[in-house]
Structures are given as C-alpha cells and as structure tokens.
Specification:
heterodimer; A: 113 residues; seven-stranded mixed beta sheet; B: 113 residues; mainly beta; six-stranded mixed beta sheet; five-stranded antiparallel beta sheet; 11 strands
Chain lengths: 113, 113
C-alpha cells in the first residue's frame, strides 16, 4: 500500500514570505502529526490532527498553523518566514489508536534565505 | 515533562559486530516506544514498536527491549552490515499526549566494511 507522501520535497523561500506544505497519510489513517527537524533542536512536535480537529499542539509560535481535510490530508502553513524556520518538516501518519505504529513521510526540506 | 536520552551519540564499528544502542526516558507513563532509522536527508523508517506491556520485539537482525519501570530501552543489532549505517532514533508516546512522540537526539551509527 502507498506510504506517506509529502509535497513539495524541496522549497526555497525568502524571509517574510509564507509557505504551505502538504501531507497525504496512508489510506485509512485518520491522524497526522507534524514535526520540525533541525540540527540544533532535533525533532520537535508541531501539532497533531485527528478527524479534522487539532488534538495536540507543540510549543511553536502562532506563525505555524495547520489543518486537516475530510480525506485526512493535512497542510501546514508558516507565515512570515524567518531564517530559523529552515528545517526538514516531517509528517507522521497514524491509523488512530494508541497502540499504532507511526509512519513518516520523506519530509519537505525548507530553506529560508 | 518527558525527556529522552540516547547513548552513545555516535558509534563506529567494523562489519559483522553485534552492537547495542541505548535509550532512556524520564516519564514511565507511556503507551509505547518506537525505534526509527534515518538516512541522511531522508524521512524516518519505523523499525520496531514496543507496547508498554511488552518486554521485547524482534525483526530480523534487530531486537528491541523495553524496561518501562526503569525507563530504558535497547536496540540490539546482530551481525552489523555497512547498509546499517544511519542515525537511529527512539521515540516514546506518552499516555497523556495523544499521538505526540518525544524523540531522543539519536545515535549515528557507522559500520565499516
């Protein structure tokens, strides 16, 4: 079965711009989580969506937002980009139960110049 | 607050050696612990998931153990191969945090031919 897909794979933006990243989970999975990975901070949780509702949120500024659609696809948006937003953004797909394996996509590499 | 620590940060071994990677966590109220592999610039590949009620899981040359009461997990890799070279990450899912995973910093493994 198809894995988790993320688009685009690479993005280059300039400071002040905004960006939208997309994640399509595994078919049948209802929960999507987003993570930011940087060399200095490692993997940090951004937010989680389950059945179109944000269920959990990490400690990131309001410039980071997300949503989930009825087909479980999720988007995250970063407004007013800063240099420090340069990172690998990963999404995880979970069927929905507490004992389920989490599967990650290949990530979107965002570079802010 | 859950904290996850991985030791060692880096490990270099000759091909064929058996090795152990360590992961410790501070909050024992977890649903499960998952081990991942990450190749440079890529997403995370799930290796093993251990539920909080389990002691160990095996997949091929990999064996992961969990001691929830002491807050420790180990990943044992038998007969290491150059293709095992990657960063290995452990992540715990807390009972009170939805699907959110808390990651360790990872162990960067190099297997030399």
């Amino acid at each position: 079965k198809a894995g988790v897909t993320q688009t685009p794979r690479y993005l280059i933006k300039t400071r002040g711009q905004q960006v939208t990243l997309s994640c399509s989970p595994i078919s049948g999975h209802r929960s999507v989580s987003w993570y930011q990975q940087t060399p200095g901070q490692g993997l940090q949780f951004l937010f989680e969506y389950f059945s179109e509702t944000q269920r959990n949120k990490g400690n990131f500024p309001g410039r980071f937002s997300g949503r989930q659609f009825s087909n479980s696809r999720s988007e995250m948006n970063v407004s007013t980009l800063e240099l420090g937003d340069s990172a690998l953004y990963l999404c995880a797909s979970i069927r929905g139960g507490s004992t389920d394996t989490q599967y990650f996509g290949p990530g979107t590499r965002l570079t802010v110049l | 607050k859950q904290e996850v620590t991985q030791i060692p940060a880096a490990l270099s071994v000759p091909e064929g050696e058996n090795l152990v990677l360590n992961c410790s966590f501070t909050d024992s109220a977890i649903y499960n612990l998952q081990w991942f592999r990450q190749d440079p610039g890529k997403g995370l590949t799930s290796l093993l998931l251990i539920q909080s009620s389990q002691r160990e899981q095996t997949s091929g040359r990999l064996n992961a153990s969990l001691d929830k009461s002491s807050g420790r997990s180990t990943l044992y890799i038998a007969a290491s191969q150059p293709g095992d070279s990657a960063t290995y990450l452990c992540a715990v899912r807390r009972e009170t945090s939805g699907s959110r995973l808390t990651f360790g910093e990872g162990t960067q493994l190099t297997v030399n031919p």
